[in-house]
Structure formats: C-alpha cells, structure tokens
Write a structure and sequence with these properties.
Blueprint (H helix, E strand, L loop, with lengths): L4 H11 L8 E4 L18 H14 L4 E4 L8 H10 L3 E2 L13 H10 L12
Parallel strand pairs: 1-2, 2-3
Helix pairs in contact: 1-2, 2-3
Length: about 120
C-alpha cells in the first residue's frame, strides 16, 4: 500500500517479538481496487515480494508463510519463486474477502506442476 522496504522489515521485526511466534503469516501482493483511495498505488515489484517471503521464512522457520491476496495478478512463475523463497501455504477458493483468487483448479494445477502436495481441506476440492 505504498510502504517502504524499511517499514515492511520493521513489521516483520515486530512480529518476532510475539511469543509464541505466529502460526501463520500471510503475505499479500497489494491489489488496487478502482474507486478506492488506493486505486492508483503500484503493486510491489515482484522481486521485493519474493525477498519479503524469504525474509519471513528466515525469521519464522516454523510458521506457515502464506502467499495470500493478489495472486490473480501474479504470474505462475512469480508464484513459483515465492514458494521457492519459502512460502508454504496459500488461501484457496474463488474469492478472498474482497478480491478474486485463482480458484482451486488452477491452484491444484500449479502446485502439482511444482511437485507440491495439497494438505487439509483444500485437498478435497
């Protein structure tokens, strides 16, 4: 949403103070929505997103690092880089709270193409 790299790092640093560590850390790619005050905000550069996920993975080795909102704007290759950098979870379904999501069929195809397996409720989609 326009925050700086230092602000994003500071947020992760603040999370390290929590005891116990968060079970889940969702990392979003900003989705600009027409008609809102942030409609003209540019998305995070792709490699910055990958770096943020890698940093979260290093800081939180036991947490689920969830690749979350904004995946419909990400290429399959960018999502793959995010997984290789340390993301190990996604939110599935057709829609998150207010933004579209790739949907179960595409998610299953992508995870299968990456040699990953689906666990939990999403495995039954």
């Amino acid at each position: 949403m326009g925050e700086t790299v230092d602000q994003r790092i500071h947020f992760l640093q603040e999370l390290t103070e929590l005891e116990p560590a968060p079970e889940s850390i969702p990392i979003n790619q900003f989705v600009a929505v027409d008609g809102t005050p942030l409609a003209d905000v540019d998305p995070l550069p792709p490699l910055e997103l990958v770096r943020m996920i890698a940093t979260a993975r290093i800081l939180f080795p036991k947490s689920r690092i969830r690749l979350s909102a904004g995946r419909t704007q990400m290429s399959d290759e960018l999502q793959a880089l995010c997984f290789f950098a340390g993301a190990n979870s996604i939110f599935t379904g057709e829609k998150l709270l207010t933004t579209p999501n790739p949907g179960g069929n595409h998610d299953h195809w992508l995870l299968n193409a990456l040699g990953m397996r689906v666990e939990g409720a999403a495995a039954r989609v």
